[in-house]
Amino acid sequence: MKAIHRSALAALVSVVLLTGCSAPKKVPYLIDAEYIPTDVLSQSQNVTDPVLTVGDLLNIQVTGVNMNAMAPFNKGKYIDTEGKIGTMSMANSTSNNYEVSTDYFLVNSDGNIDFPIIGKVHVAGLTKTQVSKEICDAIYPKYVTEKPSVDIRLMNFRVTVGGAVKSPGVYQSKNERMTFLEALSMAGDMDIKADRENILLYRVNPDGTREVHKLNIHDRNFLLSPYYNLQQNDYIYVQPNNSMRQNAWSLNPAVAATITIVGGLSSVASLVIGIVNLSK
Asked: Taking the model in full, what pTM does it have?
């Protein structure tokens, strides 16, 4: 009979330990992602040109062989002594007719920018390549005798990360793109009690429509998701898991950890004592 009780004791202790160890299985990202074929991953790496939207800040430079002819089309620019376009300082602004308030173009609520000489240009819903061609066509050959080069940079590509992450906030990219995992890294990664299977992505499209998507980064196929590469102004909300929601009231982390450990040990000890008593 004692042997049976010992077997029961061993089984129950194993159940307790296995239950306590099940949580780490919820932590890893992209489980078994190494088994995704390389050719499949390569096909999913296409990064498209950002589609411009209301609120974007654009840095637009118009250049050509004759820099003097291109200078009027560069906001807040002037020709220096070497014939190059530079940023005008406030000190010499009174002797120049060019605008000096900012070098950037803000896409207004109508989706337009006010471009020097040519006036309003509608850019919302277009890619940088499309806007570049539109500006070039408006300048040449009407105002200049050579076809200019129009370089456009999106200066405020940013995403917001909130919820169960270590450092919630707004994060900006300097190269006009950001992946989901990069955004999480910038936010200090997810809390250990974050729900990795129910992450929400809020997105506002250039036409004003909105999308909400639920993401599961346990799933290795997330690498192939159209939402792995983010768009400017995306908002990521990492939901807390059930354990974190149930313990939402404030408690010192050290105290909480101590209570959890002591409580767990007490439960195991009580279970062992009870079974030993039954075996007598």
From this structure: 0.67
Residues sharing a CB contact under 8 Å with residue 122, sequence separation 6 or more, in sequence order: 110, 111, 112
CATH number at residue 121: 3.30.1950.10
Secondary structure letter of residue 31 according to DSSP: B
Domain end (from 137, 154, 171)? 154
**Taking the chain (280 residues) in consecutive chunks of 10 residues, what is each chunk's mean pLDDT?**
50 47 62 79 72 92 90 73 54 42 81 94 95 97 95 93 96 92 95 92 89 92 90 94 62 55 56 56
Amino acid in the structure at residue 127: T
On whether both 175 and 261 belong to a single domain, the answer is: no
- Domain extent for 138: 57-154
Sign of CA dihedral 244, 250, 256, 259: negative
Facing residues of 199 across strands? 215, 238
The residue out of 119, 134, 154 marking a domain boundary is 154
Task: Provide the domain count of the chain.
Answer: 3
Give me 150's structure tokens. Answer: 């129009």
Sheet of 57-63: strand order equals: 104-106, 57-63, 149-154
